[in-house]
Amino acid sequence: MHKIFKTLSHDIGIFFNEYFIIPFFIAIFITLICIVILAVRKKKENQLHYVKIFAAMFYFSELFYTTLIHRIGMKTEPLSDIFGEWSIYDGETIMYINPKPILNILLFLPICFAVFYILKSFFNKTFTNKKIILLTLIISFFTSLAIELIQLIFCIGTFQLSDLVYNTLGGLIGAIIYITAKRIINKKSTG
Predict the structure, then answer these.
(1) pLDDT at 8 over 60
(2) How far are the Cα atoms of 4, 33, 116, 120 from residue 125, in angstroms, in the given order?
(3) CB-based contacts of 117-126 (< 8 A; 24+ apart in sequence)
(4) Is the CB of residue 85 less than 8 Å from the CB of residue 101?
(5) Within 13 Å, how many C-alpha atoms sit on residue 15's CB side?
(6) Mean of pLDDT over the chain
(7) Distance between CA atoms of 22 and 65, rounded to whole angstroms?
(8) What is the Cα–Cα distance from 103 to 89, expressed in whole angstroms?
(9) How far, in Å, CA of 151 to CA of 128, rounded?
């Protein structure tokens, strides 16, 4: 049991160092730029607003760091698996779960929250639920497509159609969660 905990803590430490430290500092830097922009525009905001901006910037930093920046220097054959992985099972045994499809969905769940919070903060825009879903689908698809094309062009990953579908699906699920959360918050504030 001790070996399992030691291995888990070691793996979590490596994961934290490789995937969270650099995006965290990038997010702090971008958040400071956003605060300066808001100060120049003379928009006074509460502290929670800046925390939300930081969370949005951290999400985008993490997204692009994980899918692109972290892979620089890792040469791959970008067209080796165009169709990608469509099953959560590995094909050998039903007990082994392939995490890639699930992670691709989870990776894009927060995109709706981040995009619409930024749009609301900087441009004071509000959207209908239909527009939120449509824009999230468009943003998720084209963000995923841009990532896949960059991986293809610079040979830092494999271009996979399954990633496009899973990422867009993740964005759609995130939009539904966003709309549901917005309705609950509105009901509580009016009721």
Answers:
(1) no
(2) 49, 21, 8, 5
(3) 117/52, 117/53, 117/56, 118/53, 118/56, 121/38, 121/45, 121/49, 121/52, 121/53, 122/34, 122/37, 122/38
(4) yes
(5) 6
(6) 77
(7) 8
(8) 14
(9) 34
Q: Which whole-number Å values give the CA distances from 101 to 95, 141, 165, 169, 170, in the listed order?
A: 16, 15, 10, 11, 10
Summarize pLDDT for 105-138 with one digit per residue, the tens.
888 888 888 888 777 766 677 788 898 899 999 9
162, 84 contact by CB (below 8 A): yes
Residue 60 is which amino acid? F
Q: What is the mean pLDDT of residues 79-96?
A: 62
Neighbours of 178 (CB within 10 A): 22
| 171 vs 113: CA distance, rounded Å | 10
3-state secondary structure of 97: strand
Cα–Cα dist 102/108, whole Å? 10
Residue % of the chain over a pLDDT of 70: 66
Q: Which amino acid is at 181?
A: A
Whether the CB-CB separation of 142 and 165 falls below 8 Å is answered with: no
**CB of 152 within 8 A of CB of 159?**
yes
